[in-house]
Amino acid sequence: MEKQVVDQQMSYAAKVALIGFFGGLIWSLVGYFAFYFKFIRVGPALALMPFVLGDWKDTYIGQLVGIGVISVISIGVAYLYKLLLQKVNSMWAGVAYGLVLWGIVFFLLNPIFPGLKSVPNLDLNTIITSVCLYVLYGTFIGYSISFQYVEEKLK
């Protein structure tokens, strides 16, 4: 009974926003750990590179602020998934979405990130780790939103 009351209080749009926020938070934290342990050459502070001046963004504070920025940006990413693919109830849509996001960041948006080398100049660890993180992120966002969409339809 209590779960039903909580579900009725939160709209589908609010759930999508929470999925996006926590997806960004979780996977950028994992990305920070991968950066910290040198599996990847760029950390979450990459999101700050085009907009913020100063060396502080290269410190752990910059990485934490980057995690926050990515979490907020992820709300928009989740709404984009909702708009385009919410009806696709398959894990593979999320995997593809993550790969497309990786391509957008590492190929299309690469020129606006001064701290990011072009893909051919990145080391193999960075490429593999970042692709895996984006695939997991896309899968988390995609499958969670599709699941929520089906749950809403069953009400």
Provide the domain count: 1
Mean pLDDT: 92
Shape by Cα distribution: globular
Order of helices and strands: HHHHH
Distance between the termini: 14 Å
Briefly, what is this?
Helices cover 70% and strands 0% of the residues. The protein has 155 residues and is mostly helical.
Layout: helices, strands, pairs:
Blueprint: H1 2-9, H2 12-36, H3 60-85, H4 91-108, H5 124-154
Question: What would your notes on this structure say?
Answer:
The protein has one domain. Helix 2 packs across helix 3 and helix 2 packs antiparallel against helix 5. The model has no long low-confidence stretch (mean pLDDT 92). The protein is mainly alpha-helical and 155 residues long.
List keywords for this structure.
5 helices, 155 residues, globular, mainly alpha
